[in-house]
């Protein structure tokens, strides 16, 4: 069965803006960037004539995300709500949520609310949106 979680794929509209968010603001580091096309990517994506830039990025703890910018199959950005069926968000642990909230808010990142204390007192939590609209949960375990 499953051995581990490999990575989380995030389709983006503006690769540079998304890199600024994930790399410059959240601290992910680029591990590999590729331009992909041909039979392999067509077959595994079940699309035809794919041209996509993929950027694998690693967090300080080793979790990997993959940003995908489809040049050949652009989609209109749709705002997904947290309650929609399917993957709703990605969560990252931070050391000091209040400080991160203020830092990111000062950089223009929009949040659903200021940090909230979980009912069990275990963590502080807030949600923001990445440039492509992905909901990002930031959690400080207390």
Notes on the protein architecture:
The protein folds into two domains: 63 residues, Roll (2,3-Dihydroxybiphenyl 1,2-Dioxygenase, domain 1), CATH 3.10.180; 53 residues, Signal recognition particle alu RNA binding heterodimer, srp9/1 (2-Layer Sandwich). Helix content is 20%, strand content 35%. The protein has three helices and eight strands, in the order E-H-E-H-E-E-E-H-E-E-E. The model has no long low-confidence stretch (mean pLDDT 94).
Whole-number count of domains? 2
Principal-axes shape call: globular
The overall pLDDT, averaged over residues, is: 94
Number of helices: 3
Q: CATH fold name of the largest domain, please? A: 2,3-Dihydroxybiphenyl 1,2-Dioxygenase, domain 1
Helix content: 10-25%
Largest beta-sheet details: 4 strands, mixed
User: What pattern of helices and strands is seen along the backbone?
Assistant: EHEHEEEHEEE
Strand content: 25-35%
Given this structure, which CATH class of the largest domain is correct?
A: Alpha Beta
Q: Work out the radius of gyration.
A: 16 Å
Amino- and carboxy-terminal Cα gap: 33 Å
Write the layout of secondary structure elements.
Blueprint (H helix, E strand, L loop, with lengths): L7 E4 L3 H11 L3 E9 L1 H7 L5 E8 L5 E7 L18 E5 L3 H10 L9 E2 L5 E7 L5 E7 L1
Parallel strand pairs: 1-4, 5-8
Antiparallel strand pairs: 2-3, 3-4, 6-7, 7-8
Brief description of this entry?
With 142 residues, the chain is an alpha/beta fold. Helices cover 20% and strands 35% of the residues.
């Amino acid at each position: 069965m499953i051995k581990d979680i490999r990575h989380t794929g995030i389709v983006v509209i503006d690769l540079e803006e998304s890199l600024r968010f994930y790399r410059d603001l959240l601290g992910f580091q680029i591990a590999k960037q590729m331009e992909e096309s041909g039979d392999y990517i067509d077959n595994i994506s079940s699309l035809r004539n794919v041209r996509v830039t993929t950027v694998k990025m690693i967090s300080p703890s080793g979790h990997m995300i993959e940003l995908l910018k489809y040049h050949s199959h652009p989609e209109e950005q749709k705002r997904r709500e947290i309650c929609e069926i399917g993957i709703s968000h990605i969560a990252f642990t931070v050391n000091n949520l209040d400080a991160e909230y203020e830092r990111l808010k000062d950089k223009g990142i929009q949040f659903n609310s200021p940090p909230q204390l979980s009912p069990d007192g275990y963590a502080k939590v807030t949600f923001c949106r990445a440039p492509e609209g992905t909901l990002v949960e930031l959690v400080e375990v207390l």
